[in-house]
């Protein structure tokens, strides 16, 4: 049990001292980038789905 508590204590200390945390502005920029990329990806996948569905309807209705 001592190893576990030592690991947790050292992990907390490392997170406080050795990790460089992003600023709030950096987090906002990253969040906007992820949101825009997700929307573009959703539009591309949705468009592909619509086109494939349309093509399949045309093929099956022949």
What this model shows, in words?
The chain is an all-alpha fold and 62 residues long. The chain has a domain at 22-62. The chain has two helices and no strands. The protein has helices at 2-17, 24-60. It is found in: Cell membrane; Membrane. The chain crosses the membrane at residues 32-52. Keywords: Cell membrane, Membrane, Protein transport, Translocation, Transmembrane, Transmembrane helix, Transport. Pfam families: SecE.
How much is the average pLDDT? 95
**What's the helical proportion of residues?**
over 70%
Separate helix tally: 2
Instruction: Please state the oligomeric state of the protein chains shown.
Output: single chain
Q: Give the C-alpha Rg.
A: 24 Å
**Total number of strands:** 0
- What characteristic shape results from the CA principal axes? elongated
Main sheet record? none
- Strand proportion, as a percent range, falls in under 5%
Name the poorly predicted regions: none
- Span between termini: 71 Å
User: Based on helices, strands and strand pairing, what is the structural class?
Assistant: mainly alpha
